[in-house]
Design a protein that fits this description.
The chain is an all-alpha fold. The protein contains 8 helices and no strands. Helix 2 runs antiparallel to helix 3.
C-alpha cells in the first residue's frame, strides 16, 4: 500500500492499485465469504462458528475494498472537512468510555424499528454535546489528548534520566 501511495502519477497509481490490491483482495474476500457460507451452511450466521469467522473476515475485506475504491476514484471528497467527525475523533477515547452508560439507558427497550431512531438521535445528541465540550474545555476534556501529553512527558523524563546515567 505504501509503494502504491508513493506513486505520483495518478493513472499509474490507479492501475497499480487495481492490479496489486483491489483485484486480489476482492477475490480473497469473495472466496472467504463463499467458503464461510458453504462450509457449514446453516451456521455461517452463528457467531460461535468457524464458518461465521471466514464469512465475517470476507465481509470486512470487501467493505475495505469498497471504501478504498470510493476514495481513490474520488467518488466522495476526502479533503473536505467533516466537522462532526472531528469531534468524534478528537474525543474518541472519551466517547468510547462514555458510551457504555447508554447500555443502562436502552437496556431491553429497543426493537428492530426503535433502535434506528435511538442510534440517529444518540448520534445527534453526542455531536452537539461534543461540540459544546470542545468550545468550553477544548483538549482538557479529551482523554486521548491528556494521555498523549502525559506519555510524552513521561518519555521525556525517562530519556532525561537515561542521559544522566
Amino acid at each position: 500500500m505504501n509503494n502504491i501511495n508513493n506513486n505520483k502519477n495518478p493513472e499509474l497509481k490507479r492501475k497499480q492499485l487495481k492490479k496489486e490490491m483491489i483485484i486480489p483482495t476482492s477475490l480473497i474476500s469473495l472466496g472467504l465469504i463463499s467458503f464461510g457460507v458453504l462450509f457449514n451452511f446453516p451456521s455461517f450466521l452463528s457467531r460461535s462458528s468457524l464458518s461465521w469467522l471466514f464469512y465475517a473476515i470476507g465481509i470486512d475485506l470487501l467493505v475495505l475494498m469498497i471504501l478504498i475504491i470510493l476514495e481513490e476514484y474520488n467518488l466522495f471528497k476526502t479533503k473536505k472537512r467533516y466537522r462532526v467527525f472531528f469531534y468524534f475523533s478528537y474525543y474518541s477515547f472519551t466517547v468510547y468510555l462514555g458510551h457504555n452508560f447508554l447500555y443502562f439507558i436502552f437496556y431491553k427497550k429497543l426493537d428492530l424499528v426503535t433502535i434506528w431512531i435511538a442510534v440517529v438521535s444518540t448520534f445527534i445528541v453526542f455531536s452537539l454535546f461534543l461540540r459544546q465540550i470542545y468550545k468550553i474545555w477544548g483538549w482538557k476534556a479529551s482523554l486521548k489528548t491528556i494521555l498523549g501529553k502525559m506519555s510524552s512527558k513521561l518519555a521525556y523524563r525517562i530519556e532525561k534520566n537515561k542521559r544522566r546515567e
